[in-house]
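User: What would this chain look like folded?
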Amino acid sequence: MSKPCIICVAMTGAVPRKKDNPAVPITVSEQVDAIHESFEAGASIAHCHVRNDDESPTSDPEKFAHLKEGIERHCPGMIVQFSTGGRTGTGRERGAMLSLRPEMASLTTGSNNFPGRVYENAPELIDWLAEEMRTYGIKPEIEAFDLGHIFHAAAMNRDGRIPGSLYIQFVMGVKNAMPVDREVFDFYIRTVNRLMPDAEWCAAGIGPGQIVVNEWCIAEGGHCRTGFEDNVRLDRDRLAPSNAALVARTANLCERYGRPVASPAQAREILGLSPVS
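Assistant: Here's the prediction, encoded as structure tokens.
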């Protein structure tokens, strides 16, 4: 299969540094360094969260602006994708940084359970975030934690709330949500192909499911997400030394399956984003 595989690195999220892995990047400068190493290893999308001084996630536009500037300076052509997920804040606070015009931003099109809480995405918030993304020319990455999220994204695409060809990410392995299940994965692909035949898709596997889902995606012609946000281990017994090591592991899988790793220019073409002059 000669189709290039886009690798997205999600380098921090809300993963605690001291508890899980001292290599988790927290400050903006640490994140820029981690993204640059991941870029060199083959990542063409940076999925971005930022943290407060106490390491808690925040939607602070100033921090997002510094991170975006650092990525653009040190990783030419890399696609910047901001998270609007529930860890970013509550309500419209979650979209406070969209006026910075990142090329992409995550958009979850429904609610579901997380281990200790409901990940709430009310219809009015989903519509508002989608409207902000249209206003600022941002391509959504649909984060689908359940089958209904795919159907709702298709409906929003049909009525123009999410225009253009879609990019769908299946999130599998979150406790109390969709597990890492091959039959479900295959059904997700068939559903996307049936409802949105021009869509591109990828998947994120959580914890030990990361490498499993990466391999499924590469084998079936999709794209991949990896990084400390989803998993901090190379295997059961070894912590990963860096986000770049997880990106390199994914790139090695691409080589095994005969899939070239997408360059930033190729990723932009696949996703319908403007080239960098």
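Residues 265 and 275 are 6 Å apart (CA to CA). If you want, I can go into more detail on any region.
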